[in-house]
User: What shape does this take?
Amino acid sequence: MGLEDGGKPHYLGHRQRLRQRFREGGPDALPDYELLELVLFRALARQDTKPLAKRLVDTFGSFAEVVNAPEERLAQVKGVGDAVVTELKLVQAAALRTVRGEIRDRPALSSWQTVLDYCRAAMAFETREQFRILFLDKRNHLIADEVQQEGTVDHTPVYVREVVKRALELSATALIMVHNHPSGDPTPSRADVEMTRRIVESAKDLGIVVHDHVIVARQGHASLRELGLM
Assistant: This one.
C-alpha cells in the first residue's frame, strides 16, 4: 500500500481531490472511470478504487453499461464482491426510480424525452428481450408500467389479446409499447412491425390509442411512429 507524506495511504488524498472536482465541476467534469471510483468509495473503504473502476469500464464499455450489467457478469470481474455489486445496483435503482417519478408526474406525450430516457434506463442493457407497456389515461398520465413478457436474446412472444385485455382491466385509453433488442441495434424487424399493426388495429376497435412502439438498445432507440411504420 503506497503512503503519502505523513504516513497516510495515497488514495485518501486522491479521494479528497476527486470529491472536490465532482462538487466543483459536477459529473461531466469526470470521465466514466472516475465517476465509478466515487461510487466504489463506500464499498471499498480501505483500498484504491481506481484499478477496479478502470477494469469495469474496460470490461463493459461505459459507466452506464457497468451499473446496468447483470450481477452474475459483474461478479466475474476480479475485485468485485457483494459490496461492490450492491453499490452499483443501488445507483441503477436510484436512476431508474428518479426517471420513473418524472414520467408519473407529467403527461407522457409532453415529456417524450423523459419517457425515452426511462425506457432506455429500464431495458436497453437487458440481456433478454422484454416487452413493456406504459398504460395511460385519457390525459396521457401513467396508470401502470408493466413488463408483459420476457423472452430470449432475440425473441419475445407477444399476444395481442392479452395486451388489449390488460388495457381494458386498467381502464386505459392509450398505451405506449416498448421492447428492447439485446443485440444493441434498435432497428425494427418485420415481426416487430407486423405485431405492432395487429395491436393497433385491435386496440382501435375498443377505443384505445397506441401512441407508439419504441425499441430501445445500447446503440439508441427507434420509434415505429417516427419511422412511419404504424
